[in-house]
Amino acid sequence: MSFHSEFKDFISQGNVVDLAVGVVIGAAFAKIVDSLVTDVLMPPIGMMIGGVNFEDLKIVLKEATVDAAGKVTEPMVAIGYGMFIQNCIHFIIITLSIFLFIVKPMNKMRLANAKKTDI
Question: What is the bridge-based pairing of β-strands 72-74 and 65-66?
Fold first, then answer.
């Protein structure tokens, strides 16, 4: 079997194409969730806790060093826990969405199919 025909057989398998489609849809979905969290959810949450922007929340370990001309010679070193909180919220929304819109319907469909085969 030639490389070309073997590769063609590999690519034409349903699971490879399904995986590629899933990755593309997942990447697009991640952008939607990112916008939902960043632009819709976090501003009101920040407002409720006193107008805090989560992206700015950090623990500064070392301030930036600036020379006499005002040029930064050493950047600030900080732990950005606000971004960590925001990314955790992203993760929770993505996993909840996958569970609600993919896993639950698939489980329901499998259960229905299992009942049909039992009859």
Answer: antiparallel
Residues of the chain with pLDDT under 50: none
pTM for this model (two decimals): 0.60
- Write down the CATH number for the domain with range 3-86: 1.10.1200
Q: Are 57 and 78 in contact (CB under 8 A)?
A: no
Element (H, E) at 66: strand 65-66
The per-residue pLDDT for 99 is: 86
What secondary structure letter does DSSP report for 51? S
At 61 the pLDDT is 95
Question: Cα–Cα–Cα angle for 49, 51, 57, nearest 5°?
Answer: 80
Domain ranges of the chain: 3-86
| CB-facing half-sphere around the CA of 20: CA atoms within 13 A | 7
Instruction: Compute the radius of gyration of the chain from its Cα atoms.
Output: 24
